[in-house]
Write a structure and sequence with these properties.
The protein is mainly alpha-helical and 79 residues long. The protein has two domains: 7-36, no CATH class; 40-79, no CATH class. The chain has helices at residues 23-36, 46-58, 66-73, and strands at residues 7-10, 17-20. A two-stranded antiparallel sheet has the order 1-2. Strand 1 and strand 2 form a beta hairpin.
């Protein structure tokens, strides 16, 4: 009967690959890597995201609307 020699899983955050001959071990290592990243998800309107990207590339403050700034400031107290 054929035997698995290597299972490989990848962290979807940093793309690091984890290999092991036991599937559950490789999958657990990749999942643990994903949960170890210090990520904050910010709910932005699509238009605010586009404005933020435009501001970052142009350095033009006119792209920063009141709603965009208010949303970003609401996350500044994260530790």
């Amino acid at each position: 009967m054929p035997e698995a020699t290597l299972y490989e899983f990848k962290c979807t955050i940093c793309d690091k690959k984890y290999s092991h001959k036991r599937r559950e071990v490789a999958e657990k290592k990749a999942r643990d890597c994903e949960t170890s990243h210090d990520i904050v998800y910010i709910a932005l309107l699509r238009s605010d995201l586009q404005r933020l990207l435009a501001f970052i590339t142009s350095k033009n403050d006119d792209w920063l609307t009141e709603t965009l700034v208010k949303t970003l400031r609401s996350y500044r107290s994260l530790k």
